[in-house]
């Protein structure tokens, strides 16, 4: 048979083999790119943050009561939203799931999330309830007291049926607080979201973020905060929350370990300007704080959590390696410290370069 008959077939086969070679070369290069991103601390896994977002009104001067404040700085806030933006500010990927009022503040907050690179497909808007507001009193030392306007606010009215389950199932880490446990229907939405995330294989991260004025009583707060305790893989509490949950005035290892549960991978106790303590199944220790000029502590814990999650989302083996975990926690402490140097939470959340600059300067 004349060779000319095979020429078109051979040409097509050569082209096919060439395309296959290009395809596998692309896959190889892409895999190397993903590995390089992980090695450089660039997060590719999605961190989904569930709960409330609101407007914080912060006095323009510290050390005065709300009535005495000459004016207020309007700042977007809400712990889960703070965490979501802390993640993207550091180069990670995050999404927010929650409910806002179908009002100017609600759409402003949704816009702020989008401007900061947070996926907003999980946001619902309520036409009948307003976006939550909080007036924050700043004491002279930068610590806060809160007065909330939620009667009810939109975040409290999120229902299980309104959850964007596709977003939740996409999470490699699912982060939440306890404020969404206070009333129905949001409590049921919270429980369903946790269940769906866990079934999809997400790491569950819990920061109770205690706000006693929002609860009917201290006893109810303690009961509900602990009601989901054994579901979390990572739990972060402050020293004040440790005292509240344990009923002890001791901030020590014994008190912290009383909060341990068998499925927990990491328990963190933040100590303000004294750093943090960490506990795992195999080791425990502490990380010192960075000393900065504190203006407002709002969002410092959220910045800390966002930094931690950004670093572990693609490599959870860090939780089993003490040296690497301490390095990550130093980075998280640096992020938390920087956040205290400005008024408001979200405007003060640092970039990775800002955190690295503080790290290089030392504690």
UniProtKB/TrEMBL annotation:
GO annotation (BP), single: fructose metabolic process
Keywords for this protein: ATP-binding, Carbohydrate metabolism, Kinase, Membrane, Nucleotide-binding, Transferase, Transmembrane, Transmembrane helix
PROSITE patterns hit by this protein: PFKB_KINASES_1, PFKB_KINASES_2
Transmembrane segments: 29-50
Tree of life domain: Eukaryota
SUPFAM superfamilies according to UniProt: Ribokinase-like
Pathway: Glycan biosynthesis; starch biosynthesis
UniProt EC number: 2.7.1.4
InterPro entries membership: Carboh/pur_kinase_PfkB_CS, PfkB_Carbo_kinase, PfkB_dom, Ribo/fructo_kinase, Ribokinase-like
Parts forming coiled coils: none
UniProt key word Methyltransferase: no
Residues of the Carbohydrate kinase PfkB domain: 46-351
Gene Ontology cellular component terms for the protein in this record: cytosol
Similarity field: Belongs to the carbohydrate kinase PfkB family.
Protein name: fructokinase
């Amino acid at each position: 048979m004349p060779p000319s008959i095979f020429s078109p077939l051979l040409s097509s086969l050569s082209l096919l083999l060439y395309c296959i070679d290009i395809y596998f070369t692309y896959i190889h290069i892409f895999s190397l790119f993903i590995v390089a991103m992980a090695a450089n601390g660039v997060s590719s896994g999605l961190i989904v943050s569930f709960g409330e977002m609101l407007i914080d009104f912060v006095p323009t001067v510290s050390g005065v009561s709300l009535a005495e404040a000459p004016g207020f700085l309007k700042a977007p806030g809400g712990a889960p939203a703070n965490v979501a933006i802390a993640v993207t500010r550091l180069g990670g990927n995050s999404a927010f799931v929650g409910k806002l009022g179908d009002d100017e503040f609600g759409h402003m907050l949704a816009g702020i999330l989008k401007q900061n690179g947070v996926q907003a497909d999980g946001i619902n808007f309520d036409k009948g309830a307003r976006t939550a507001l909080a007036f924050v009193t700043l004491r002279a030392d930068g610590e806060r007291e809160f007065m909330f306007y939620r009667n009810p606010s939109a975040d409290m009215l999120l229902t299980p049926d309104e959850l964007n389950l596709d977003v939740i199932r996409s999470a490699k880490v699912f982060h939440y607080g306890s404020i969404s446990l206070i009333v129905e229907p949001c409590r049921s939405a919270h429980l369903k979201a946790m269940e769906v995330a866990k079934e999809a294989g997400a790491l569950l991260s819990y920061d109770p973020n205690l706000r006693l004025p929002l609860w009917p009583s201290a006893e109810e707060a303690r009961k509900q905060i602990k009601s989901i305790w054994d579901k979390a893989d990572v739990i972060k509490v402050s020293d004040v929350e440790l005292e509240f949950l344990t009923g002890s005035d001791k901030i020590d290892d014994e008190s912290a370990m009383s909060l341990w549960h068998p499925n927990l991978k990491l328990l963190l106790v933040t100590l303000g300007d004294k750093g943090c303590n960490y506990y795992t199944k195999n080791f425990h220790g502490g990380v010192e704080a960075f000393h900065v000029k504190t203006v407002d502590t709002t969002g410092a814990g959220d910045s800390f959590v966002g930094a931690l999650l950004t670093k572990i989302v693609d490599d959870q083996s860090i939780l089993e390696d003490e040296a690497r975990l301490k390095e990550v926690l130093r980075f998280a402490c640096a992020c938390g410290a920087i956040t205290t140097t400005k008024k408001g939470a979200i405007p003060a959340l640092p970039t990775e370069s800002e955190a690295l600059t503080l790290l290089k300067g030392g504690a």
